[in-house]
Request: fold
Amino acid sequence: MEPHAIRFPARRARDVELDGQLLGSGARACVLSHPHPLAGGDMDHPVVVGLWRAAAAAGLRSLRYNFRGVGASTGALTHRSPLATDDLAGAIDFLGGGPLLAIGYSYGARTTLHAILAGAPIERAVLVALPTRLPANRTAMTNLLLGRRIREEEYRDTPDLDLVGTAKTPLLVIAGAQDPLVERGELEARGVPAEILPGLNHFFSRRLGNQPAADADLADLGARAVSFLLGN
Reply:
């Protein structure tokens, strides 16, 4: 399969044109949303690419795209910007308007969740490393970046922790056991299934720092995500 470069407008912002890569030609579509660019996220992030390829290999028409202001996408995205749900909506429009499947990673998982709660035609979604809490002290922030967990960390829950339990769309959260932003018990107490992968951090790496994930771990992540999306 060869990917196709595509461009499409964001919804409600026709002057914002987004770039993406489409892989596969299946009747069912899957859209993938990347982490925040101010934290190093774009559609070329290895986790996003691995999930994109896994979805296409499973027979889905798989689209990864850059949010506004990222790569060749026009517009701007900052920490003060609202969640990029209009960008995701534009991707859904490009894919035919849904219903479809979705995967979001970190900020992309938040964007996917909020799009679902706003009524996006998403049948099933995998929220990879959905941050349901944030660092509340310097130690926690340092350890998040290093990909480790120690007792002196302090966190504060985000509103998404309660919101994710209100979604009617079938959801699965997948996260690494060393990711301090995701607590399995808190999710499952709200009726949200979570798969926690041993030894992996927020970047799905087994090494300290924002290091690339191993191919085997990316393959496992992709297999779990696609299995849920296909209802297996």
